[in-house]
Amino acid sequence: MGVHRTTVGEVVTAVSDALARLLDHFVTFPTDGQIAKVKQKFFLLGDMPNTIGVIDCTHVHIQAPRQREWEYVNRKGRHSINVQLVGDADLAITNCVVRWPGSVHDARIFRESRLFTEFQTNRPDGVILADSAYPLLPWVMTHFPTANTPSQMRYNNAHGRTRSMPNNTGLYCATQYRCPSQSPPL
């Protein structure tokens, strides 16, 4: 298109910075007044009570950076940024962390997030559902690795149903914004 590569890079950086400054205006966790409705929607989705969000990370593929390239290689050998997303029952992103190279584990991203710090101090009125990459906390619920009783099986089924639809938010985002020169996301 006749535009120098440096100019494109500067424009992309400027637009990315502007969008990042607007993030807190559009990506917000439910307020106290919204929590009851969020819990109801999650319950209708999969019979899991007291749920206020689902959390997962997704790898967004990138071209290999020139500096610290090895940090961006994920467990499948591809260059990526590991993005943490929390979503609600309507597939809206309510919290996100977009700053970690692909080699960083989901649990570390979570542990170092503002969400973790905030909720460790001010416990939310509800729970966030997570997969086994995340720690079990009073406000983070994972599934039973082995369901030994009928009640554990029912819990795992409800956990899986409730997590499955909003969890697809991350996959959808990754497929929409992947690096064009890379293969499909993980």
From TrEMBL:
Residues 55-168 form the DDE Tnp4 domain. GO terms for cellular component: cytoplasm; nucleus. Its main location: cytoplasm. The keyword Glycoprotein does not apply. It is found in: Cytoplasm; Nucleus. One of its GO terms (molecular function) is metal ion binding. Its cofactor is a divalent metal cation. InterPro entries: HARBI1-like (IPR045249), HARBI1_animal (IPR026103), HARBI1_dom (IPR027806). Keywords: Cytoplasm, Hydrolase, Metal-binding, Nuclease, Nucleus. Belongs to the HARBI1 family. Transposase-derived protein that may have nuclease activity. Does not have transposase activity. This is Putative nuclease HARBI1.
